[in-house]
Amino acid sequence: DGPKPLAGKKAVVTSGPTHEPIDPVRFIANRSSGKQGHAIAAELARAGADVTLVSGPVTLPNPAGVRVVQVETAQEMLAAVQGQLPADIAVCAAAVADWRVLHRADQKLKKTGDGVIPALQFAENPDILATISTAGPNRPSLVVGFAAETENVVDHARAKRDRKGCDWILANNVGPETGTFGGDNNEIHLIGGSDPARDEIWPRQSKTAVARSLVARITRHFNS
Ligand code: C5P
């Protein structure tokens, strides 16, 4: 089976969308297949890490050799991630809904028949990546986030890295022409620090290949 370069390392990976309920039958969500996060969890496990995958609702099978915690909402996702700390590695690949519905209805909202349309109020969801990046003594020693951008990809991603306090950002061009969302290919620009000399550009490759490249990069990080 080959050497296990990440044996003894504990990793937590977020994946998929979150669903934020409006009422018992309706929700707000982000568009996310979970393919990238699930592939990363699988590759970390293949490299010998002890992996917990915290996943929102997806239609993918559970990756082999990975502990899966299924969640619905951003708040549940944050609690599940925090429940896995301390860890050595955190990779936040989930597409978390930025807002949740402030007052979720206990019963299905009904059409009133008089043309009155319900108005939703929102509350801001926790930023899981930013929260664990600033988790003090519990902060994983390597925290990796993603940035999906449609323009000025690298500048926006570097600013995001600084703002959130993570170590690396994998910036992804999701312009409408790229077919990234739900598709199988990602072009990644790894932002490894405030100094662009630490950046890496990975050619367009499958999400599985991106996962392998990331795990190879993580392995080098811990072994150099
Ligand atoms: O700010 P933005 O959503 O573009 O940042 C994307 C990165 O932040 C991803 O790594 C995503 O998983 C993470 N994120 C998060 N919690 C949020 C929003 C984003 O962990 N509420």
TrEMBL record:
Task performed by this protein: Catalyzes two sequential steps in the biosynthesis of coenzyme A. In the first step cysteine is conjugated to 4'-phosphopantothenate to form 4-phosphopantothenoylcysteine. In the second step the latter compound is decarboxylated to form 4'-phosphopantotheine.
Gene Ontology molecular-function annotations: FMN binding; metal ion binding; phosphopantothenate--cysteine ligase activity; phosphopantothenoylcysteine decarboxylase activity
Name of the molecule in the record: Coenzyme A biosynthesis bifunctional protein CoaBC
Cofactor needs: FMN; Mg(2+)
Binding positions for CTP per the UniProt entry: D98, K108, P126, D127, I128, L129, F146, K160, K164
Lineage: Bacteria, Pseudomonadati, Pseudomonadota, Alphaproteobacteria, Rhodospirillales
Region Phosphopantothenate--cysteine ligase: start-end pairs: 11-224
Full-protein interval shown: 183 to 406 of 406
Reactions it catalyzes: N-[(R)-4-phosphopantothenoyl]-L-cysteine + H(+) = (R)-4'-phosphopantetheine + CO2; (R)-4'-phosphopantothenate + L-cysteine + CTP = N-[(R)-4-phosphopantothenoyl]-L-cysteine + CMP + diphosphate + H(+)
Domain DNA/pantothenate metabolism flavoprotein C-terminal residue range list: 6-219
Gene Ontology CC entries for this record: phosphopantothenoylcysteine decarboxylase complex
EC code: 4.1.1.36, 6.3.2.5
Annotated cofactor note: Binds 1 FMN per subunit.
Pathway field: Cofactor biosynthesis; coenzyme A biosynthesis; CoA from (R)-pantothenate: step 3/5; Cofactor biosynthesis; coenzyme A biosynthesis; CoA from (R)-pantothenate: step 2/5
Keywords: Decarboxylase, Flavoprotein, FMN, Ligase, Lyase, Magnesium, Metal-binding, Multifunctional enzyme
